[in-house]
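To assess whether ligand presence alters the predicted conformation, the chain was also submitted together with zinc ion. Input:
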Amino acid sequence: MALPFSGTLLFCPNGLREDETKLHKLKIREDALFLACSKFNPATTESGDLFWVPWRVVHSVAADSDRPIFLGLAPDGSPRFAIDIGDSLEAWSNFTPNGFQNIRSIAAHLADNRTAIVAQAHSILKWIAHHHFCSRCGSNNAVCLGGYRLDCTNPACGALTFPRIDPVVIIMVTSRDNEKCLLGRSHDYPDKIISPLAGFMEPGESIEDTINREIREEVGLTCTDIRFWGNQPWPFPSNLMLGCFATVEKDQLTINEDELVFADWFTRKQLEEIFRNPSGDRIFPQSISIAHHMMKAWLKDV
Ligand SMILES: [Zn+2]
């Protein structure tokens, strides 16, 4: 199953990003299409689809400094790019009649592989916008490889920077008899939201190490039988969610209140009730999230 923000149909042939001349020729092709983004959110049509514009529009309205990033070739062969419009919202307003939509709402509406394009554009454009300067010497960075590498412009330095992805493990912990699962709420979750526990991976950790550390830190339990379930890019700004199931031998929780507001065991019947009542005291993350799909999978005992 392709989760939201994954399953892209765009493809970049080997070596194409490295060839500036070929990228330029692709950019000015009649069938090339561009996704304008404001604050990393894409332009949309009235019906909520992605709103693509041709090069002549980009050329007429974009500043010279606005360099599109290359997303890849669509199945019909058309080159696809994304461009950050920066502060040029007014200049673009005539060409983006429905404005720019938050990617969470777009993803919920599109709910297919187009969300992968949204995630790709959002993550790369944001990464470029936040890395104007070399982290080693402070000189300006130049955008290379169609947006997938930043090269320090100081010849004495020459540092190359690549897009960063932060892996996060999300764990559906179940009791030994598989009759209940562990859900909780971190301090940074929106009110009422409960979800499987999650945490950033740290350097030097395997997925299993992260799971064991997080579950021990947050509820004082030891995991056994860790199984990988699925994964999802999460472009806020650039995470990779690694969904796993794990079993615990004991179920006595020792909740770390520095980490969690709340945690408890839930039966399938309780999960079904929460799914049925989205205006209740406890609600689950939206269907764009892997957390939502992991809980649905457990309900079906998959
Ligand atoms: Zn440098």
